[in-house]
Design a protein that fits this description.
Blueprint lengths: L11 H33 L7 H21 L2 H23 L4 H32 L6
Helix pairs in contact: 1-2, 1-4, 2-3, 3-4
Length: 139
Amino acid sequence: MARTKNKPLPPLQWLQPRMQAVRLLSAFLLIALVLLLLVWNLLYANLHGARIWVIASIELAPLLLVAPGMLLGSARVHAWACFMMNLYFIKGVLAWIDPARAWLGAAETLLSVTLFISALLYTRWRYQYERLLAGEGAA
């Protein structure tokens, strides 16, 4: 069934502080997730002879790819980060099952879910903000 009436957009005064808050939260959570993975791989991981830098670079590469765009506030990069957070969520849940890595799994799952939500909210509110600036909601 097709929609006949669009939902009204929130006002600019409502969107601006929320966009700024979730953008800062996303940046903080991204840095926290990078630090968690670095600390785990450097101090606690039992890699069975694998090179630490190889494992760390494989785990950190997706985060470092989206980091510049997220720090600059790109809505598109925040949307892509939502897709990537699924990898860290799955990895966190699998680590949570292992008693030796349960705290890592819990922290990684919590950080990835929170980053997913904040990036999703930023993407939604940013596109609503851009629609308002284009004059769409001024009817």
